[in-house]
Structures are given as structure tokens and as C-alpha cells.
Amino acid sequence: MSGPARWDPGADVVEVQRGPEPGGLGSVYRTFGATLRGLRTTFGRLVEGPVTLEYPEEKTPVYPRFRGRHKLHTFEDSELEKCVGCSLCVAACPAKCIRVVAAENTPDHQVSAGERYAAVYEINMSRCIFCGYCEVACPFDAITMGNDYELSDYERSDLIFTKEMLLADPIERTPLRREGE
Amino acid sequence: MTGALVVPLSSAANVAETTLVQIVKAVVIFFFVLSCVPMILLLERKLLGRFQARIGPNRVGPYGLMQPLADVGKLLSKEHSHPETAIPWMMAIAPAIAIGSAVATLAVIPFGPVGAWGGDLGLYGIDVPIGLLYFFAFGSLSFYGLVLGGWSSGSKYSFLGAMRAAAQLISYEIALGLALLGVAITAGSLSLVDIVDAQDGIWFVVPQFVGFLIFVVAGFAESNRPPFDLPEGDSEIVGGYNTEFGGMRFGSFFLAEYIEVVVISGIATAVFLGGWHGPGPIALAPLWVILKMFAFVVFFIWVRATMPRLRYDQLMSFGWKVLLPLATLNVLVTAILVVLT
């Protein structure tokens, strides 16, 4: 054969697989079988039992690195806030939802471990996209992402979390997923 | 029998029953149905949930037992609205026809023989010598409720649903009739009580297995249950014949559908599953009937959880090309066998 050599597809040829032709007695028989298989499948679910998690009573466990509501931290020994009001988190935040107003520490009003502290630290949770950049940007590990995900509220203004709210422990703890769960 | 009013429809078995007894029976049947339907409703929602690996309703009352009550309460508090093109008084009577005809069929379902609970009391509404025909008559009447409801709504979806209901009735009523004809030939009677009596030795589900299968399939179509719920077809024609119905009128259609399920289960029990026959004393007869009906209702729900709705042309070709020839063949074979033996 002249011309360009034909490409030999070899083992790559895909055979078209056809099901049995519809109609006729065979079709009736197959439909019957399929019906019984379907009934078996649903009965299997009945035997297995429900997989429902009854949400408000049972909560979905989250993974340890789940990014939920933020937490502000204090030093365990001195009770001083870790946040020094450097506003790096504000700069890192893509959603511009953090507001920090810094103030100077004085010897008789020592709030944080550094020279300055955050007089105002607010996170607008209705804007936050839970990217975790604030956590990465923070040089003192003062802000971390917690595990809380139940953040809905009736008023937008209630979703602006103040420093006191972020420092406090969550009211209800979110269950953590165990190893291999 | 001093001056007893004899009901002319009764066959020889319960001629002696007075009007009072008949009224009491009617009330009992009505209460049986009305207390049955909410239970089946809840059972269906619960079981359907389990079949789909869900829990089902469990918020209203303990284990969600009050759910049907809450549903009815919700329906009762809704207003009756209708389109401008509708015929209101027909919309009002359509659900009544559906319910009335469905309840009427229950009268012939035998729950026990004469004297099961002492005396000459038969545990059934009436024992008409044309029991099966009675069942078909009222089964067809219930479709008038659907068709009338759909047509008088003055809405195209309702109309489509009603047309589907009519076409489905014509297609499957014949197969249903032929399936039961095999049993009638074998038992030699149309009376449901006689048919149950004839199953003393062996239930008709064994010698009439093909007839039983046809009856089950056609029964699903007769009661508009999935996979034959084309008249409702909520995914294609919104809600079919009950699109324009709200409040308790919709609830009545819903109720009628479930009564129909009970009726089909009752007929299947009486005709194929041996009716009141079962181990234990004869006084337990109603228990066996109710247990068998319950099993059949569970099967209804099981199938609903499994099967998708048929396409319209599939429904038609299945009814006319498969079910009808099969049922005819079944009747022919049965007739030949009965004549030969």
C-alpha cells in the first residue's frame, strides 16, 4: 500500500459494547430481574439503618485543621494578650474584615506582652471568608482559626465579633473528628 | 327472624342480619379506614425514610407519631382556592366521589367467616354474590373522582393528569379483571367470602401465581401508586389532577389514594393470600387478614421506594402488549385446566 503508513492502533481499539436489544420475552425477563435487584437494593438500606445525623442535637465532627471562628490567645502564665496590635492581620486579610486600633501599654495598664496592644480588635464575621491568612500573618500566634462553625445570627451587627468575644471560649464546643473518622 | 329487614344484596349466608347490624358494620368499617390511613401514612413516611437510609419524620410527638395529625391540621387550616376557569361545585364533589367509592369497596372485604366471633355475625360489610364485580364497579367510580377533579379544575396540568388517569384506568382495569377472572374460575364464585372459603387447603397465590403477579402490577396502577402515579406525576405535570386543590380537598384525594391502597391490599389478601386462613382459632381471623394486608401495604411502600415512574408510552405498551396478553393466556390456561380436572 502506497502513501503514508497506516497507524496500527494495536490493543487500543475500543470495542463498542451493546446491551441486549429491547423488546421481546427476554426483555420482560430482564426487567423482572432488574426490578428484583432494585427491591434488594432498597431493602439493603433498610437493613443497614439510617445514616442521618440529627443536626441540632448531633453535630458534624470537624477535622483538627478546620477553619472556623477565630480565637485570640493570651499567655497562659501571665494572662497577657499575645496580640500586640501590629495590624499585620489587617493587611493580610483579603476580605478586609478585621479592624485593629492599637494603643500604648503603660506600666500600670499592661494588656499585652509587647509595647502596644489592640485596644479594638473586631472581626466582621459576615465578611470573613475563613481563608486563615490572618493566622499565617500573625507573628505572635495571637490569632488562630478555631473549630466553631455555628455562626449564624439574626442581626448583621451581631456578627461583628469584638475582642472580648474572640478571647472568650466558644459557648458550645464543636466535636473534633477522631483519628481515622 | 321477627320482622327483620333483609338487605336484598345479601347472599344466603347473612340473610339474617338486621339493618342495625348492617349500620354498626358500616360504622366499624368507616372507623377502621379512617384510623388505618393515618397509620399507613406515618408508616409510609417512616419506612420510605429507612429505605433511603434516612430516619423519617421524628419531630412531632414521640418518634414522630403525631405527624399525620400535624399534616391534617395543616391541611384543615388552609384555604380553598380555585382558578377562575374552574367549576367550583364540581371541584367540591370530586374528592367526595374518590373517597366514597374507595370506602364502599372496603365493605366487601371479608375479615372473617360467619360465626368467627360467635352468633351468625359475618365479619364483613356485605357478602354480595357479585363481590369482584362490586370491587371493579367502585374501583372504576373512584376514577371519576380523579377525572372530574382534574377536568373541573380548569387547568391544563389537572386536565393532563385526568386524561392520564382515564387512559391508565382503561389499560389496567382489563388486566386486573382478567387476573381476578382466573381466581373466579378456580373458586367457581364471584363472592369474596366464597373465594376465601375455597382457599382452605392452598392459597390461590400458588396455583394462580401469574394471576397474582398481574394483579399486583395492575393493582399498583389502579391505586395510582408509584411506579404508576402518572395521573399525579409531580415532576412532569406539577401535581396532575390535584394541582388546583388545596386544603382538605387535596387531603381528601390523598386520603382516597391511601384507602385505595388498603382496598387493593384487602382484595389481594382475600383473593390470593388466603384471607382469614391462618393458624390458631377461627376467632383470630380478622388478625390474619389485617396482618396480611399490612404485609401487602409494606410491599406497596417498598416498591414506591424502589421504582421510578414509568414513561407514558412505557405504561401504555406495558399494559396492552405485556399485561393484557399475559392475563388472557392465564385465564385461558386456567379455564382449560379447570375443565380438564
Largest interface, counted with CB-CB under 8 A?
A-B, 15 and 15 residues
Any idea what the shape of chain A is? elongated
- Which regions of chain B have little confidence, pLDDT < 50, spanning 5+ residues? 1-14
Compute the gyration radius of chain B: what is it?
20 Å
| Fraction of residues in β-strands of chain A | 5-15%
Percent of residues of chain B in beta strands?
under 5%
Instruction: State the order of secondary-structure elements of chain B, H for helix, E for strand.
Output: HHHEEHHHHHHH
* Alpha-carbon Rg of chain A, integer: 30 Å
Quick one: overall form of chain B?
globular
Q: Provide the CATH architecture of the largest domain in chain A.
A: 2-Layer Sandwich
The profile of the biggest β sheet of chain A is: 3 strands, antiparallel
Average pLDDT of chain A: 84
Report the count of strand segments of chain B.
Answer: 2
Compressed to H and E, one letter per element, the order of chain A equals HEHEEHEEH
First-to-last CA distance of chain A: 63 Å
Number of helices of chain B: 10
Q: What structural class do you assign from the helix and strand content of chain B? A: mainly alpha
Could you list the spans of chain A in which at least 5 consecutive residues all have pLDDT below 50? none
Which oligomerization state do the chains in this entry correspond to?
Answer: heterodimer
Mean pLDDT of chain B: 81
